[in-house]
Amino acid sequence: MSRNKKKTEKASKAAATTEKEIKAPATAAKETVKADKKAINPVVSLRSKLHKKPENKLAKQKNINEINTPKLSAEKSNSAAIFFKKLKQIWMKPHPKQVKTKQKPLKETNYSDSQNGKIFWHNVRHRIFAENTVFLKAIAVAPILGAAVSLKNGVMLSCVMFLTVVFLNLVMYPLNKIVPHRFSAVCAFFMAGIIITPLYYAAQYCAPSIAALCGIYLPLLSVCALPMIETKHYGEKYGFAKTMLAAILDGFGFAFAALLFSIVREAVGSGTLYDRALPGFAQMKFSFALLPAGAFLLLGLFVALFRKICGRQENREDSK
Amino acid sequence: MNGAEFWSLAVTAIFVQNIVIVYMLCDGSFFKALKSPVSGIAYGALVTCATTLASMLSWVVNRYLLRPFSLTWLSPLAFVCVIVLLEIAAQIIIPIAAPKYKNGIDKLLPASAFNCAVLGLVFLNVQVNMKGFLGTAFFGFCAGIGYLAAIFIAANALERVRFSTPPTVFKGLPIALVTASLISLGLLGFSGIVIPY
Q: How many other CB atoms are found less than 10 A from the CB of residue A240?
């Protein structure tokens, strides 16, 4: 039975194909005949020409007039737009020595919620520890060397620097799109000065003794915050939310470095922690750690330790 | 002010109160300048100009604007504005006066002006109360010379250290910091010295 079925199917297919083959040349032939008729018969072409509608001369003239006369309103707006475009290009012309940083494109993949959470916390830890601004990039070294002598000073420095970095990024994100690249550093420094002034006096109002101990290193945080402007490094690749998140994480990274450095320096140098005597350290305090030489040595040791932990080696971008 | 006063100010600014080694007003650009001697000297010279001019202008602003009108609470912003004006003036004048050096100095100008050393020195001048306009200007100039001397000494020391093959973890920035600590130990002998005049 199955063999008979196969035979009948094959036969029906063959019949269908033969019918198509017979029909195809017939249709092709009809079309060629029509084309030949048109080409051969001049009467038909004459008739088509004679029975054409008369040309509307007035309409033609109108069209010609519309073409010749300049469209003043549309052209004016176009020229104005072109003018402003050129002006913007000149204003925003990049500096000839502008270095283009080679950045890897941000990969967008669809992860699940739990994976997204893991990746987020991994990036946070990476930003605070593996890309620490103080220990691995040598940014904001001066206040930590000079003022992080005790935990109180470290807390003060951390709070002021965190607020400075966050507000500076908040202000510079829109300004970097308006201000030309040549004057972006100047604008950033000016905005840093505006931000640090109220913070400096808030610190003096809230904790005058600690602010006096920090001395000139508190206003210096304005200069130290300049390399932490995210739009300078990532430009338009980072949106506003990512820029602010990166700024907050940079602030946390500085706070971590300042607190760790100040704890070790106070414990080793004074034998105290937050002005309270430590049980084992009070007897074997080493006041060399409070001197500038001790500060440089301690920072060098911390940098080497973090490099070992994070697996970093000597790089051209070692210090920014 | 007589010659002895200028001499004492010079020794104080370069050795006793060196802005890099004693006050630790150094940042990433200082350690970057140690890598190449030519750019380090050029950078040090620019910082010297910046410290001198910033000291002069900040003294004028402090004396005639901030103190008379009791605006000392605006001193951070005022001194930042002074440095910003200096930077803008330098960016306008240098391409006209020295077009040959424009390309080389262009990158160093912002780093030399927007520096911990320049702003820190300005605040130090206000706190320490230098003797008049000339004293402040000369102290600023000598502080810049001290910055240049620190670059020179540290760069030479690092060149010797590179031949001794330090551990891989210490290569680069850590060994530079350890070298700076040894140099500051050497200058510790000058601490507390007051040169009479």
A: 12
- The torsion defined by the Cα of A252, B173, B112 and A190, in degrees rounded to 10, comes to 0
Task: Note whether ipTM > 0.95 here.
Answer: no
Instruction: Name the CA dihedral angle for B6, B60, B146, A194, rounded to a multiple of 10 degrees.
Output: 160
Taking the CA of residue B4 and the nearest CA in chain A, the distance in Å comes to 29
pLDDT digits (tens, 9 = 90+) for B45-90: 989 999 999 999 999 999 899 888 888 888 999 999 999 999 988 8
CB-count burial class (<10 Å; 0-12, 13-18, 19+) for A161: buried
Mean pLDDT confidence for A314-319:
47
Yes or no, beta carbons of A220 and B25 under 8 Å apart = yes
Q: Which residues of A touch B21 (CB under 8 A)?
A: 292
pLDDT at B187: 85
Task: Kindly write down the DSSP assignment for every residue of A34-81, as one continuous string.
Answer: HHHHHHH-HHHHHHHHHTSPPP-HHHHHHHHHHHHS--HHHHHHHHHH
Angle in degrees, CA A262, A159, A137, rounded to 5: 65
Confirm or reject contact between A81 and chain B (CB < 8 A): no
Please name the amino acid found at residue B139. Answer: F
State how far the Cα of B195 lies from the Cα of B9, in Å rounded to an integer. Answer: 9
